[in-house]
């Protein structure tokens, strides 16, 4: 597990640093890649949507549009309305109503949870001091992850949510929280 984390950091961190430093279009491309991978992973973990390829592709496209929405905020309401209506009507035509609504709810959840949430990284980077704010957010996130990993590994005894992630502990969560605060204040 530690080797995988080190490898990921060795490859990912320089890429992230460069993308944040140079801003658009590089940062938006990085966020786009993360949104596509994250949305697909969300669908894979939460439901059978990956077996229904057209639905998965529609969700990926919708999440992509949301992630890039800071660049064209003036047309976002029209795009969102169209996506909601088209996806629901399409699903209702293809599946029984109960199953269609269930699939649609997961489709929307993935789009909002990944695409919409990650669009705020683009919004943050666009700000005048955005580069610094993005670096601060990344550093505190990395500090939280690293602190949680090592504290949880050394002293973790009380499981946090074993059904979701068996290795997570309350001690690790507290270690991550304290690590993030230390980095943010420093």
UniProtKB/TrEMBL annotation:
Annotated Gene Ontology cellular components are: plasma membrane
Reply yes or no: does the keyword Glycosyltransferase apply. Answer: no
Q: Does the keyword Cell membrane apply?
A: yes
**How does the record classify its membrane topology?**
Multi-pass membrane protein
Alphabetically, the GO molecular function entries are: phosphatidate cytidylyltransferase activity
Q: Name one GO biological process term.
A: CDP-diacylglycerol biosynthetic process
Q: Mind telling me which residue stretches traverse the membrane in this protein?
A: 55-72, 101-121, 133-152
Q: Subcellular localization, per the record?
A: Cell membrane
Keywords in alphabetical order: Cell membrane, Lipid biosynthesis, Lipid metabolism, Membrane, Nucleotidyltransferase, Phospholipid biosynthesis, Phospholipid metabolism, Transferase, Transmembrane, Transmembrane helix
Q: What is this protein called?
A: Phosphatidate cytidylyltransferase
From what organism does this protein derive?
A: marine sediment metagenome
């Amino acid at each position: 597990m530690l080797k995988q984390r080190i490898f990921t950091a060795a490859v990912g961190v320089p890429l992230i640093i460069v993308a944040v430093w140079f801003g658009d279009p590089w940062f938006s491309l990085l966020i786009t890649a993360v949104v596509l991978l994250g949305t697909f992973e969300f669908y894979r973990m939460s439901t059978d949507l990956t077996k229904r390829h057209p639905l998965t592709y529609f969700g990926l496209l919708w999440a992509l549009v949301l992630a890039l929405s800071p660049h064209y905020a003036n047309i976002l309401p029209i795009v969102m309305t169209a996506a909601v209506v088209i996806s629901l009507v399409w699903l209702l035509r293809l599946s029984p109503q109960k199953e269609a609504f269930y699939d649609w709810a997961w489709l929307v959840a993935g789009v909002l949870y990944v695409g919409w949430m990650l669009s705020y990284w683009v919004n943050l980077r666009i700000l005048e001091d955005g580069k610094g704010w993005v670096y601060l957010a990344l550093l505190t996130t990395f500090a939280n992850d690293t602190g949680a990993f090592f504290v949880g590994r050394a002293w973790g005894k009380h499981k946090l949510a074993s059904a979701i992630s068996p290795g997570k502990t309350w001690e690790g969560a507290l270690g991550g929280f304290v690590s993030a605060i230390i980095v943010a204040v420093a």
